[in-house]
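Subject: Protein record for review, amino acid sequence with backbone structure tokens
Why sent: The fold of this protein is of interest and is recorded here as tokens.
Notation: Tokens come from a learned vocabulary of local backbone shapes, not from coordinates.
Attached in line: The record itself begins immediately under this heading.
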Amino acid sequence: ELPRRTPASPGRPRWLTRRGGSLLSLLASQCSYVTGQRVRRAQQIGQLYGNIYSERTRWSLFSGLWRRFQARHASACKLMAALTGVFLWEEERIQEEELRRSAEEMKHMEEVSRLFHGSGGEHQKLGPKTHVDITATREEHPWEMVMDKKHFKLWRRPIEGTHLYQYRVFGTYTDVTPRQFFNVQLDTEYRKKWDSLVIKLDVIERDLTTGSEVIHWVTHFPYPMYSRDYVYVRRYNVDQENNLMVLVSRAVEHPGIPEDPEFVRVRTYESQMVIRPHKTFDENGFDYLLTYSDNPQTVFPRYCVSWMVSSGMPDFLEKLHTAALKAKRMEIEVRDYISAKPIENSGSEGKASMPGAEHKNEDTHSPAQLEYA
């Protein structure tokens, strides 16, 4: 019996099958050749641009291409950033508009503060539960006064769609300079010494374009609650011309700081501090406006959380004030952020990772050369 031959494909001659295989082989070879040529060409172009342009210009070019890619594939970019451990400053940094809005709130409060002073400048005491229109726009909920002291007033208003409140403090100090009070808030190393509730407080990453910083803050909460940890970005601005200082912070997600099972991660957090010196940054006396909200994720009723915040905020401000007085008496050195040199901004973007506290490796990665006050 003759050996059987493998039949050709039905309706297709054997020679055509062999020819099809040859065509596929040639096509694969051609694709490989074209790919290799393009890779070599890309390398040559990269080397050429490297010889022509500086490192800053190359980074600016890459950033522009990256922003275009982000605009078209925003969700894919966030997923890729999370997988690769990259923090997207373009998405998360504090914007100029946020700083400007905080400054406008301060101007509005200065106008409203005339309601609490008589024609002779004497303080007018308001009763509890007083509703005062300190809102900048009519669309906002009215603020309810919950505390009226000689040197500060505390309001709150409900956050729509939640069981939480937003808080606002407007106060005055006359025995410390605005410079010390502002610097004490920014110096994370000093806060570890004067704030006994701090478990951890480190600068994780810094944006070279705006000076924004990512902070990881772990703090004790009243017993029997677990300790909380915050990951937030902050940015400050010192307006010498308008005699104003602004510090804005809000919670962000950072791929390099995963959740720790020992702490409860607070994902909703916002804070704006605005300081208006009575005269100059180095003379005693200033007004301040602090607007604050967060979601501590507790199981306690709304009134309990409100009581904790309402009582805890004045206590924190008093500790901050005491720490500023110690800095004024030079009991401890505090970094001077107001005298920092301006950040060079020529359209480039960059970041500086902070493996430890912000006092380390400042000579090459700091957005500004900081002195001591």
The CA atoms of residues 175 and 284 lie 6 Å apart. The chain has a mean pLDDT of 77.
